[in-house]
Structures are given as structure tokens and as C-alpha cells.
Amino acid sequence: MGGAGATTSNGREPRGSIGEMSSSGYVALPERGVIALHGADLVAFLQGLISRDLEQITADRAGYGALLTPQGKFLFDFMILRTAAALLLEVERARLPDLMRRLTMYRLRAKVELEDASGRYAVAAVLGDDLARRFELEDRPGACRPLGEGFAFIDPRLGRLGVRVLLLPPPAIGPTLESLGFAPLEPEAYERVRITAGVPDGSRDLLTEKSTLLESGFEELNGVDFAKGCFVGQELTARMKYRGLVRKRLLPVVLRGPRPEPGTIIRLGEREAGEMRSSIDGRGLALLRLDRIAEADQAGAPLSAGATEVMPVKPDWVNF
Fold this sequence. Notes:
Elements: E1 25-28, E2 32-38, H1 42-47, E3 63-68, E4 74-82, E5 87-92, H2 96-107, E6 113-116, E7 122-127, H3 131-134, E8 144-146, E9 150-154, E10 163-167, H4 173-179, H5 187-197, H6 234-242, E11 248-256, E12 265-268, E13 271-280, E14 283-289, H7 290-299, E15 303-305, E16 308-312
Antiparallel strand pairs: 1-7, 2-5, 2-6, 3-4, 4-5, 7-10, 8-9, 9-10, 11-14, 11-16, 12-13, 13-14, 15-16
């Protein structure tokens, strides 16, 4: 299994490199919504729930985190921004009501108000080269600054995912980005970059109440902090890290053959090796057993999902 820009486990060249930026421009993300949290107890309330340390989220630094079950399994992931009066969570829009209900359940007597602010913000991902300079941002994941009536920030997970923009009112997002020289792109442009980089897209790639953060790359993607103290699901997450219990990883794969549906079982011979997640244009994400990858490398045997050959590629940011 190769690193970024390297060969796949069977020695063939993958199509394109892991960090390849397919286009320059912006992709509107209408499937993303925004929750605004206000109140005197805001930071203390959320700090004890989510995997990210809120003390590190500032006006000029956005973050990425997750809310887990008490058993340490994935529920929701989100971008986090701090304003003068609120915290903003950029989340999957379809699952936003569920997240608000879950946060309300935890709120008890805390002085915190939750608002669905999706109607006030539009979300887009800007792709291309030299984005930090063009947005006048520090060149580091999470670097954030105001942009019009909103914010622009380098994706806190991985800089190669570009700059994220939250802007209000929503009709302003196109003219604002086009005035900066960015043309609209087809939605698939962002999908190609994300999948090739090996970064999951919430519940499309992570199974609710089943996936774990460390199998899904959250530590390397700046989505979990082991020095912040307790959060919901922290015990299992820490145990997996310190006892070396991560046996599977969500990885990018090169596909040769028909596109497998999400959930298709991946096999090494007759033995189960993993499961497909999202895919596009001969690239995909798959949750794979690390021992099966090692066996396939040693034997020179391919992994397969039905009639499709599946070749794992280890991104340069993955550590195992």
C-alpha cells in the first residue's frame, strides 16, 4: 500500500495523486446547515460533550469535532466557529434537527439557547491553489477570518480540502466568491478532492452508533483532543488509542471495475476484509481491516468488492 502519490498495494499506479486538486473555483454545499449556540454557559456546556477542545477555537481559528454516544460511537461531526456572541456548528443539514434534539437533551439547566441558523447562512467549499494568500489567511488548517457578513476558514481537517465559506445572506455567496475570482464548479469537483484525500463526509461514510473516531481518522484530522479532559465517549476513544486497539481504518481506494454500492463487502479471497463507503470516478473510501491489507500485500493478492478490484492507498496524513 503506497503513500501520497505512490503506488497501490499491487504495484500499479493509482489514477491521480492523493493531493490532486481537480479544479479551481467554488462548490456550493446546500446539504450543510448551521446551528448557532448562545448563552452564558455555552463553552462549559459544549466542552463536556464534544471531542474537540473549545479553548482552542478562537475568532481566528476554526475547528472540527464530533459528538459521540456514551459508548464512544459516532453520532455527528461538525465544523466549529466562534463569534463574539455565539458558537456556530456547521453540520449535515438533513441531520441538524437530530443534533439539536440531542444537545437539548444534554442542556438540562445550562444557560444555552440553540438556533437553527441554516436559513441565514450559505456554505461553500473553495478549491484551488494559493488559497491562503487569496483569502489573506495564515497558511494552516483552521485559520479563519471575517469575509463580508460571514467567515472564510481553511478546512481544519486538511488544508488540501480548500477554504470553507459561511456567508450571510445566502444570495451573497455567489457574487462574493466570484468577485474574488472563483467560478462556480459542479458538486462532483469537491467530492473528487475529498474522496481522493481520504476524508469522510459525516454519516455518508461513518455509520451512526457504530463507527469510532480513531478508525475514521479523526486524530490526524484534528477532530479529537486527548488533553482536553472528559467528553461523551472519551473513555472508549482513549482506550483505543493507548492500548493500540485500532484494527480497521477508513482509507481511500482505487477501484477497477463497476462502482460498488456503499455497504458492499470487500473480500480477500473468501474472507471479509472491509466495506465500501462513498465513491466517484474510480476512487472511493472503504473501511478496511489492517491485517487483511497486510496479508494482501504479502501475497500479492487483490482485494475485491464483487467484480471490482479494490486497491488501498495510504494518504500521507494517515498514521498507522
